[in-house]
Specification:
This protein is an alpha/beta fold and 245 residues long. Bound molecules: nicotinamide-adenine-dinucleotide (NAD). The site of nicotinamide-adenine-dinucleotide has 30 residues, from helix 1.
C-alpha cells in the first residue's frame, strides 16, 4: 500500500461512520439490508417512532447502550487518535457514530453530528421547538429505560429522550463542521455508505484542490466524489496508510 504523507502545513478532516465501529462488534445497518440490529430504522430512529411508541424506541437505545458498554475501541479508532496526537489542531474528526469508542480511544477534537448514545435530553429541548422549547440541556446518561413507566421526566413534564439525531432531524454542530471542512487539505472518509445526508455531501464541500480519500471494504454510493478509494477494513488500512511529516 502506497503511503500518503501528511505535510507540515496540512489540515485533515475525518468523517467516520458505522463501519469504523464494525470491528468492535457494533453492527452497521447497510450491511444488514437496511436493518439496524434487526429493527427497521423507521420504527426506532425517527420522531414519528418516538410519538408512536416511546418505550420501543428506548428499548432499542437501551440495548445499544448495553452493547456499547461491552465494546472496546479497535485499531481504527486508535489510529485516528494517534493521528490527532501527531497533528494537534490540524486534525478534526466528525463522526456519525453515536457510540463513544472514538473518545475512549483518545480522540478529543471530535464532534458527534448525529448525537451521543450516552446522553439524553428533554423531548421539548433542542432545535425546532420554537417558543415552546424547554431550556434544559442534554446530560450524560447510561440508564436503561424499557417501559413507558420507566421513562424519566424533565422538570417541565417532558419525557427524557435519547440525545440522538433521528432521521428527519437536523444534525448537530454543522457550523463548526463547515468551518473545519473549508480549511482541510485532506478529507478522509471511513466506514460510511455515502447514502445518509448531509454527511454524504461533505466530500463535495472540500476545497477543489483537497485530497479526498475513502476507506472501506466496498465503494460508497458517492464514490465518484473521491480522489482515491482504498478498499479494505478501516482497522487494517488506517494504521498503514498515513505518515505524518
Ligand atoms: P451504514 O450502516 O449506512 O454503512 C456502513 C458502511 O461501513 C458500509 O459502507 C460498509 O461497507 C462499511 N464497513 C463495514 N465494515 C467496515 C470496516 N470494517 N471498515 C470500514 N468500513 C466498513 O453506516 P453510516 O453510513 O454510518 O450511516 C448509518 C447511520 O446510522 C449513521 O448516521 C449512524 O448515526 C447510525 N449508526 C450508528 C452506529 C454506531 O454508532 N456504531 C451503528 C449503526 C448505525
Amino acid at each position: 500500500m502506497k503511503r500518503i504523507r501528511i505535510g507540515p502545513e496540512e489540515r485533515v478532516f475525518v468523517l467516520t461512520g458505522a463501519g469504523v465501529s464494525a470491528e468492535s462488534g457494533l453492527k452497521t445497518f447497510r450491511d444488514q439490508g437496511g436493518l439496524w440490529e434487526g429493527h427497521r430504522v423507521e420504527d426506532v430512529a425517527t420522531p414519528e417512532a418516538w410519538a408512536e411508541n416511546a418505550a420501543r424506541v428506548w428499548r432499542f437505545y437501551s440495548q445499544r447502550r448495553r452493547d456499547a458498554l461491552k465494546a472496546e475501541p479497535n485499531v481504527a479508532h486508535r489510529s485516528l487518535a494517534a493521528m490527532e496526537r501527531a497533528l494537534g489542531e490540524r486534525f478534526f474528526l466528525c463522526t456519525q457514530n453515536v457510540d463513544d469508542l472514538h473518545e475512549r480511544a483518545g480522540s478529543r477534537r471530535l464532534v458527534h453530528m448525529h448525537g451521543e448514545l450516552f446522553a439524553s435530553r428533554c423531548e421539548f429541548s433542542g432545535a425546532g421547538m420554537g417558543a415552546f422549547a424547554c431550556a434544559a440541556k442534554p446530560f450524560h446518561d447510561e440508564a436503561l429505560y424499557e417501559s413507558d413507566a420507566a421513562i424519566a421526566r424533565c422538570a417541565c413534564g417532558g419525557r427524557i429522550r435519547p440525545h440522538i439525531v433521528w432521521f428527519g432531524e437536523t444534525p448537530l454542530k454543522m457550523n463548526r463542521i463547515e468551518r473545519e471542512i473549508a480549511q482541510a487539505t485532506t478529507m478522509l472518509v471511513a466506514g460510511t455508505s455515502g447514502a445518509v445526508y448531509p454527511a454524504a455531501s461533505f466530500v463535495n464541500w472540500a476545497e477543489p484542490q483537497a485530497r479526498r480519500i475513502y476507506i472501506g471494504p466496498e465503494e460508497p454510493a458517492n464514490a465518484g466524489s473521491f480522489t482515491q478509494i482504498v478498499l479494505g477494513k478501516a482497522g487494517e488500512v488506517l494504521p498503514e496508510l498515513f505518515e505524518v511529516g
